[in-house]
Amino acid sequence: MSTQVLTYLFVGASFALYIGIAIWSKAQSTNDFYVAGKGVHPVANGMATAADWMSAASFLSMAGLIAFLGKDGSVYLMGWTGGYVLLALLLAPYLRKFGKFTVPDFIGERYYSKTARKLAVLCLIFISFTYIAGQMRGVGIVFSRFLEVDINTGVIVGMAIVFFYAVLGGMKGITYTQVAQYCVLIFAYLVPAIFISILMTGEVMPQVGFGSKLVDSDIYLLDKLDQVTKDLGFTAYTENVKSNIDIFCITAALMFGTAGLPHVIVRFFTVPNVGAARQSAGYALIFIALLYTTAPAVSAFARMNLIDSIQDQPYSSSPSWFKNWEEIGLIAWKDKNEDQKIQYSSGNALENIKPNYIEGKGSSGERMLANNPDLSNENEVYIDRDIIVLANPEIAQLPGWVIALVAAGGLAAALSTAAGLLLVISSSISHDLLKKTYMPQITEKQELRYARIAAAIAIGIAGIFGIYPPAFVAQVVAFAFGLAAATFFPALFLGIFYKRLNKEGAVIGMMAGLIFTATYIIYFKFINPTLNSDEYWLFGISPEGIGFLGMLLNLSLALILSSFYEPPPEEVIEMVDEIRRP
Q1: pLDDT: is 483 or 444 the higher one?
Q2: Within a 13 Å sphere around the CA of 470, how many CA atoms are in the beta-carbon half?
Q3: For 190, left (φ over 0), alpha (ψ -120 to 50), or beta?
Q4: Could you give the CA distance from residue 207 to residue 193 in angstroms, rounded to a whole number?
């Protein structure tokens, strides 16, 4: 059976499973739609949280980032896992005891302010749509490469699946669908990693193989990778390029930003009680660790295999995986020295090309690049980092069913997070903007109808992002984390642990963190990208890490200004006491 047929079978079976779960778990009330009736078992919620957490960024992009950045890529591992620990210990149990539906709901009630609620909704929508754009890109990549359909068709199919179980089932349908999606994605991630670990190091566990010697050799994998990358002009794989202060700030921004992500926080609203929230946090950490401890090994295996597979190979006999990914614009080659061989080395000659912006082929068969990049260095190859996990089984020449499994896993990761993000958008619009702000007279049935309409509209917008991806999608990832760190985390953390914080301090702190972080990132990423280097950055901190300073600014202003205004009403202080009472 061919790999493509197997892929259709695996993906079709997983989609049928998701639809079946959605029909079985149809939401009957706003309680079902927003928080799954608050009756999800901690183990199931742990799996759903892990699936919500591990988006296409974790499944597709993280290993690719680490594979190309080397040790500098560890900021993503430390930041994202550390952020989950912060969320689980400092926020999740208390927000569950609050007992409402959304993050803006907590901010609006805690700071007794419609302005704070509206500001929270605005931040939530921006963060969520930033992530959805990335998920839809992942869906398009998987469909176009493995199912050999147009990217637009793939995005539309993905939209239809998400529409079905998000609009029909709400949080109840999404939760149990995410349990299934977690099982698919973790199996799809671990199986090829185990295969490749055995082939390269003889070790079954990739985590052990990562630090082991290569088969039939006395050389350790990482020593070999260091030598190979240095020979090609790159920094050694296990060495840092970024400054210590930038590494610290990026890690901190990712940690605090991740702890403030609303689509993950809301997962802890779905369990029966505070004890179950703590248990589900523990289970989720175990489920997340399975992938995150494997990712460094996958990255090293992929980088080593990739170099071995293509370096100095005649283009005419280049591996099939290279040409397959070349056809959809995620790999490109320019024969600079006209020797008709692939020369992969350090350099930015092909860094600026965009997927699907490639015109025909040259005399040696090379892809012609539409934007005519600088050809001043020896690097002849552009490789999109997002293909590393998907292409890894092909590069290692694993069986077709493993390749098909990875395709299904990539779709599971993208769709699970997209559904969670779409739900928090629809919940915030129907509950926080309509029910709590502009249309307080609507009934529960009307609120549920508006929630479904909002979800449908959000899915349509997400589909547009997938079909016409904004050129800045990759850049605004930093925006999303920085914004969450600079706005949500201080408001949530101080709202729980500092009773004296009033609405003036919270709103001004959030706005200051938002304006400072957004201005810094927009300036260096969009207005003046030529100055985007440590020579011009504030204290040497990159736009990816500036959200940490935005968070400190928010915290400082909120604490200082609160002393100049009236303390919160007595009922708010009593609410905080109740949240914190064991």
Answers
A1: 483
A2: 16
A3: alpha
A4: 9
pLDDT reading at 144 higher than 80:
no
- pLDDT attached to residue 208: 92
- pLDDT tens readout for residues 379-422: 778 787 778 888 888 888 888 888 888 888 888 877 777 777 77
Distance CA 333, CA 348 (A): 13
pLDDT (0 to 100) of residue 391: 86
| pLDDT over threshold 60, residue 504 | yes
For residue 128, which of 561, 429, 569, 552 has the smallest C-alpha distance? 429
257 close to 487: Cβ distance less than 8 angstroms: no
**Among the listed residues 185, 169, 76, 73, the one whose alpha carbon sits nearest the alpha carbon of residue 422:** 169
Identify which of 541, 526, 416 has the alpha carbon closest to the alpha carbon of residue 476. 526
Q: Is the pTM of this model over 0.90?
A: no
What string of H, E and C letters represents the secondary structure of 504-523?
A: HHHHHHHHHHHHHHHHHHHH
Reduced to 3 states (helix: H, G, I; strand: E, B; else coil), residue 545 is coil
Strands 367-369 and 331-333: unpaired
| Cβ pair 389, 59 in contact under 8 A | yes
Least confident of 362-366, 462-466, 555-559: 362-366
- Structure token digits, residue 81: 């896992």
> Which residues are bridge partners to 220 per DSSP?
213
Bridge pairing between strands 367-369 and 358-361: antiparallel
Q: Choose among 522, 524, 516, 526: nearest CA to 549.
A: 516
Q: Rounded to 5 degrees, what angle do the CA atoms 466, 15, 424 make?
A: 55
* Cα–Cα distance measured from residue 77 to residue 518, given in angstroms and rounded to the nearest whole number: 24
Closest CA to 94 of 258, 269, 285, 280: 269
Does pLDDT of 375 surpass 80? no
Grade residue 342 by pLDDT with cuts at 50, 70 and 90: confident
- Domain layout of the chain by residue ranges: 3-302+398-474, 312-395
Helix (H) or strand (E) holding 403: helix 400-427
CATH topology of domain 3-302+398-474: Hydantoin permease (1.10.4160)
- Over residues 204-260, the pLDDT tens digits come to 999 999 989 898 888 999 999 999 888 888 888 888 888 889 999 999 998 998 888
Separation between Cα atoms, residue 21 and residue 32, nearest integer Å: 14
The DSSP annotation for 370-391 comes to TT-----SS--EEE-GGGHHHH
Q: Which residue has the tokens 């977690």?
A: 182
DSSP 8-state symbol, 293? T
DSSP bridge pairs for 333: 381
